[in-house]
User: What shape does this take?
Amino acid sequence: MAPTLATAFSRRWWMAVTAVIENLLFSAVLLGWGSLLIMLKSEGFYSYLCSGPGSRASNSSVVEEYLEMKGWPICKDQDEMLNLAFTVGSFLLSAITLPLGIVMDKYGPRKLRLLGSACFAFSCLLIAYGASDPTNLSVLIFFALALNGFGGMCMTFTSLTLPNMFGDLRSTFIALMIGSYASSAVTFPGIKVIYDLGATFISILLVWAGCACLVFLNCFFNWPLEPFPGPEDMDFTVKIKFSWLGFDHKITGKQFYRQVTTVGRRLSVGNSMKQQHHQAKDLAAQDASKLCLSTVDLEVKCKAAEKSQSFMKSVFSPIFMLSLITMCVTQLRLIFYMGAMNTILESLTEGDLKTVSEYTSIFGVLQLLCLVTSPVIGYIMDWRLKDCEDENDKKTKREPGQPRRPDKQIQKITNATRAFIFTNLLLVGFGVTCIIPNLPLQILSFILHTIVRGFIHSAVGGLYAAVYPSSQFGSLTGMQSLISALFALLQQPLFMAIVGPLEGDPLWVNVGLLGLSMLGFCLPFYLLCHSRHLKRLRDERDEDPKIYVQINDGSKSEAFV
Assistant: This one.
């Protein structure tokens, strides 16, 4: 049985720690494809496409060199087929984000997480079954990697809603979840180490599938059926027990608090006000004997006061459109470097494959930096939020000369501005190190690449959580991921330009991408102007507060003549 939101809130630290571990082991593990490819070739997947010694390559008069890996032949045709399977799985890591976000916003994370963990476990079983007879079952790798990508993205997306339970630390925990997702690229390299130590491939996959079943059980017993509302939509701190009221259904958070307050008002002043205000519409004027313990009337009266902007308005807002530009440019820069890294290193080492392999291993190990550095950008996003005024402070009359606490919305936008400026400066630094043809300097490029990859996702996730309604977080994040992934497909023609007309020299492509990276500063520039506009409106309201009143006890001050 699914726990309530109150029960889930009491277990939030357990859920957060396990979500980080689960992201490391089950989310974007396909990003470590290089290690999995070696293991699949060692197990004989699609080895039947390779010809015997001394045979000619297909459609060619050139004799293909015969190579073996653990007794199985390997060849170019095999690489092409396996990479096609990887393309299917990796595409789902990005393309599935939009429908997943829409489904999650509507039905909550529990069902998606259960489905994702089940799909991941089944993908491991399919690969293990295919490894038992690779000559006849190699085709299963396509279905397995598709399920692997789908299941991993389900677990990644659902974990991004969990930070809503941590209030003002939400951006920090979003950054931690994204950091664990980005660091999952080390999972297959770690499995390959176990494989090289003598463990059989099938046994490793069976154990991994069993671990995915533990993720299923953890979600079944700890994740609630309802979506996690944002801190602005729900107050988890209400811990008063009113079981004697006899509610006949579940209500939570601020809605529960309003219900209890309304009930108390009815009981205390209902009879005394009945005669004086017979026609009054306020719930407090109703007779206590006609008390209705239901949230139906409450929902009707609260819907008008809790209007949130539409999804299409959020999509076409300047902040979201500029965030798309920033993410598209950054994703293209990062993915192009990952795809062309071996070619770049070969041009710097004059074709020394051993040195290229060493630097590639260093790049893989450094992916763990995402887990360490991503919370830094989340801390920047959460800077001084606890010192900001809340709704009670806005309604409380201040003494003359008393300093006013910072506005929380303005502080969030200011923090996001700093986060994006810092991230874009690192991206520009990464572009500069790529231009300099120095091999040891590429280690610094690896570090900057890893940090930027964690920072940019964390900053965008924190910005969406701060600016847009929590009910739209999944849909907006999914749309952004899909569009940026489609834009990143441009890396293929850029790569073809390097190996073709540019004859392996990536200089001019790197220069062009460095210039394109400057577009990333458009978003922080707009956020800076937007925060100043909000501060100016706030100062005007403070200087002449007489013309601003609260209409219908709403949360926004409006001018009234």
